[in-house]
Amino acid sequence: MGTHKVCEKIFYFFSCLVEQKFPLFGKRVGLLVSCAADMAAKFALGSEPVVGSLAPSKKKEYRVTNRLQEGKRPLYAIVFNFIDSRYFNVFATVGGNRVTVYQCLEGGVIAVLQSYIDEDKDESFYTVSWACNIDGSPLLVAGGINGIMRVIDCGSEKIDKSFVGHGDSINEIRTQPLKSSLVVSASKDESVRLWNVQTGICILIFAGAGGHRNEVLSVDFHPSDIYRIASCGMDNTVKIWSMKEFWTYVEKSFTWTDLPSKFPTKYVQFPVFIASIHTNYVDCNRWLGDFLLSKSVDNEIVLWEPKMKEQSPGEGTVDILQKYPVPECDIWFIKFSCDFHYNAAAIGNREGKIFVWELQSSPPVLIAKLLHPQSKSPIRQTATSFDGSTILSCCEDGTIWRWDAMESS
């Protein structure tokens, strides 16, 4: 690929971000792009991926405003509620057999709202996601080592449902942003499952002949194509799946009146695309428009474009566009987060440092590097607030850190 071709790719990437829409609360929120049109004239883009510089741009500065010691057990997940605009400053964490709900208040204050202790003291939750009940009340869906998904109604403060189906531990749960009663789960049992949290039905199982050959570590819904998901795992691959031809099962799950166990759950055995971007475990993938961000244990996040062959499902080529270096990020199960508009991604490392990368620029710009002398424990996950002004991290030592953007003087 020549220089002009890569330029076209970068511009296509940004134009897709501009066009990407997020229907939410009846409004359409467009993505903002900060890349100037003359970018290509300033940077000679060759056939190699564009690699970001680790020199912080200081476009935004953050300071620690709070540190909480939740317990002694590791915290594996932390996530803001982007499903309901009433609760954008509310977040949840999981660690051990506990799910805790907090609220970010002014002045760096973190208030504890609710806490749930699982009946099984040996449960260790690895993941949590926000969803929505039919009456609009917020739900939390958590899963972990036992392979059971707990659906918690935050309105009634009770367990609403328990989903049993996976044959091993659950590594990640994500919610469909366009239809927030649908969640997808990735498991050690080598499968991905689609669930309806309203009816308790397991709709689809993505596994089989073309499925993952080891633990599935991460999964994500496409932000605007309601039929598409991406999954990745210990078989070093990223797989893109389509639900389009199985969508009647999804629709049927909302009107099903018999027992959930009698629903005709469908197996989806073949993905529409398989990518071997990495040479080791792939533990986090997120859609960025029609492109994908993924990371392995090789100290970087990679932005790439899947180019599918319409006539040959599962086949195609990959264009690696950009790389975002993350030093000392060479252990698995470290996940990054983005703000609502995908302006930035925040990722921690095994030394307790956080790197905040600007996503809508080329070459990639390091917005900030967050470090504190007392933050030394591996950061398992970050949570970036709706507007990117607050970044949270949950750590192996059971701590939660809050960083807030400082106002420009």
Automatic annotation (TrEMBL):
| Entries under InterPro entries matching the protein | PcG_WD-repeat, WD40/YVTN_repeat-like_dom_sf, WD40_PAC1, WD40_repeat_CS, WD40_repeat_dom_sf, WD40_rpt
- SUPFAM superfamilies in the record, alphabetically? WD40 repeat-like (SSF50978)
Decide whether keyword Transcription regulation is in the record: yes
State the PROSITE patterns in the record.
Answer: WD_REPEATS_1, WD_REPEATS_2, WD_REPEATS_REGION
BP term (GO), one: chromatin organization
Q: Does the keyword Transcription apply?
A: yes
WD repeat windows? 163-205, 209-244
Can you tell which superkingdom this protein's organism belongs to? Eukaryota
Keywords in alphabetical order: Chromatin regulator, Repeat, Transcription, Transcription regulation, WD repeat
Which family is annotated?
Belongs to the WD repeat ESC family.
What is the name of this protein?
Polycomb group protein FIE2-like
Q: Which organism is it from?
A: Pyrus ussuriensis x Pyrus communis
Q: Which lineage?
A: Eukaryota, Viridiplantae, Streptophyta, Embryophyta, Tracheophyta
